[in-house]
UniProtKB/TrEMBL annotation:
The keyword Endoplasmic reticulum does not apply. This is Chromosome partitioning ATPase, Mrp family, contains Fe-S cluster. GO terms for molecular function: protein tyrosine kinase activity. Transmembrane segments: none annotated. The lineage of its organism: Bacteria, Pseudomonadati, Pseudomonadota, Alphaproteobacteria, Rhodobacterales. One of its GO terms (cellular component) is plasma membrane. Keywords: ATP-binding, Nucleotide-binding. InterPro entries: Bact_polysacc_biosynth/exp, P-loop_NTPase, Wzc-like_C. CDD domains: BY-kinase.
């Protein structure tokens, strides 16, 4: 069960339209936006500029495609051989009913992110065992089903990396090495589809906070956003109440999803997590995992 109230508030289109209208009037007043006849008169003069902009845009898109092409295709752990699209998507997210629920979450999340100009979100939980990696994997698989999306999934639970097990893939080194600048982005990230890539770790890293908070890590994340231009980066984070690694990463995120366990998470746990998130990033929603809500039939199973 997903609490989407925060996402819906971010998508208050009527409020945003009024805000956009005020911004438009301000641009017109300052002479930065032409209207009506002014725009028509300016059109011939702007034509060469538009042509140049379109040329730059085409080159930019080709650069992005070339950068994605540099990433190797992921290999299965037991065979170390390239497999088909269906074989490489996490089995835990391919059940039609579960997939339909996560497709709804994906669409709401992407709408909220587009409205705010965001690209990077984290998935965390109060404690271990709440299902944060499950949610991150299933959400990423949902994004992978949208061929028009560019999506990246990163395992930032550096002390207890498990994404490679969830997807049954062979990691190319460690995410920590990539964030520390010891491993180039194109040598670590692996494509599962044409426009979905994953970064995993082959072994635990004992001192994650120093890496996550470093200027080098921020530069690497910026390079990923610039070179690959993903629509969404999903970061699988460690639990918030089990150490300070997730807290160290929060300021680099545009928003975070909090995954709770319906059988063990207490209201106090959620309150403590909200307090830790406040002022560092945006809490985009709370997901209740392992609840008694099993009414998945109302969701469309197609992505």
């Amino acid at each position: 069960m997903v609490n989407t109230r925060t996402l819906e508030q971010m998508l208050d289109l009527s409020g945003r339209a009024a805000q956009d209208s005020g911004a438009r009037r301000d641009l017109v007043r300052r002479g930065l936006l032409a209207t009506g006849g002014e725009a028509a008169q300016a059109a011939p003069a702007l034509a060469p500029q538009r042509g140049a902009q379109m040329g730059r845009s085409a080159r930019r898109q080709q650069d992005i495609l070339d950068n994605w092409a540099m990433l190797d295709f992921a290999t299965r752990a037991e065979a170390r051989a390239v497999r088909s699209h269906d074989a490489t998507i996490s089995q835990l997210a391919r059940d039609p009913q579960i997939a339909g629920a996560f497709d709804v979450l994906r669409t709401q999340l992407l709408q909220a992110m587009a409205a705010n100009g965001w690209t990077t979100i984290g998935v965390t939980s109060p404690t271990h065992g709440c299902g944060g990696t499950f949610v991150a994997s299933a959400l990423a698989a949902s994004c992978a089903r949208r061929e028009d999306l560019r999506a990246i999934l990163l395992d930032l639970d550096l002390q207890r990396p498990t994404l490679h097990e969830a997807f049954d893939l062979e990691p190319m080194g460690s995410v920590a090495d990539m964030l520390a600048g010891r491993l180039p982005m194109e040598a670590h990230l692996q494509r599962l589809t044409r426009s979905f890539a994953i970064g995993m770790s082959d072994a635990p890293f004992t001192s994650p906070v120093g890496v996550l908070q470093s200027d080098t890590a921020q530069s690497v994340m910026s390079e990923i956003r610039t070179q690959l231009a993903p629509d969404i980066i999903i970061c699988d984070l460690p639990p918030l109440l089990s150490g300070d690694a997730a807290i160290a990463m929060l300021p680099q995120l545009d928003g975070v999803l909090l995954v709770t366990d319906g059988t063990q998470t207490s209201p106090r746990d959620i309150t403590d997590c909200e307090r830790l998130i406040a002022g560092k990033t945006q809490l985009m929603g709370v997901i209740l995992n392992k609840s008694d809500d099993r009414d998945f039939e109302r969701f469309n199973p197609r992505g």
